[in-house]
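Ticket #4471: structure output looks truncated?

Reporter: J.K.
Steps to reproduce: submitted the chain below (317 residues) through the standard prediction queue, then opened the result file.
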Amino acid sequence: MDSVQWSVLSIGTQETGLPDRFDHYPLFTDHWFKSYGMTKKNTLTAIAPPEPVTDPVPVAVEDRVEETPYEAVASICSVLVVGLFILTFLGQNFVIPSGSMENTLLVGDHLVVDRITLDAPAKWMPLVHYREPRRGDVVVFLKPVADADPTDGSPTYPFLVKRLVGVPGDHIHLRDGIVILNGVAMDQPHAQPTTADNHTDFLDEFPSVPPYPQPGATPESWAVDFPTHIENGDLVVPPGHYFMMGDNRHNSLDSRYWGFVPRENIVGRPLFNYWSFKTPDDQYEQSGIGNSLAWMGHVVLHFFSDTRWSRTLHLIK
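Returned output as attached by the reporter:
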């Protein structure tokens, strides 16, 4: 046992193999005994195998990525492009400026309009459901005749919203305000009723009284073209055109005044009313920055009291 111990410790000193006093070499002896598993009693102990050296586990550090100005501008542009695509091809919002469709639509109603369903079929959107306009549809369209711009007199074609009454080939006439379509009286509960007080021959006995040119109402072209569409007292809707009327029959400039609407002028159909605010009938006819600012202030102050909450998300039929 001693021979083993001395052979292992032969590097201590040349004569004895170990230093005379271990306490003179505390660092040396401690390191020596720990390395070779020996004690100060010159005995061997079992040496445990060294533990494998592994790389320290990296501490997770939160990555903070700052958005560059270029990326911020790109994000904003992406949102604008998507919004423009939706407003151009899928849907659009409109505000009702007049009472020609009361009580179906009121002045101050804000509508979401579906621009896809009644549009011409497109090959790049094969999964979209398209259909032709039908009788009874409430539709948004471009007015077929131009209005004069109030500022410079240039021709403008405003968006209108009316109810579709006649499709191509239909024979139409009115008797006492009731629409006779292809010889059958139509039940139209949404239309304003005709009474002795509001009866007008031109409106309620159409087309027995032909239109005549009126500035801002009936263009001369319609007054001239009108007789060519009359057969046996009925107005016949030509191919590719539609006949429109407002539900407020006695306060609506519609096809009785300016003629048929071409198919390509139809923009879409209102889906629902997303917000309705009590608005004077002539509010949207006023112009000028002062009137606009005054109206915006009125809306802010009376938003909760003058919003027609019962019409919010009201479906258009």
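Triage note (M.O.): checked the attachment and the full token line is present. The helical segments are 2-8, 26-36, 69-90, 201-204, 220-225, 255-258, 289-301, 303-306.
Status: closed, working as intended.
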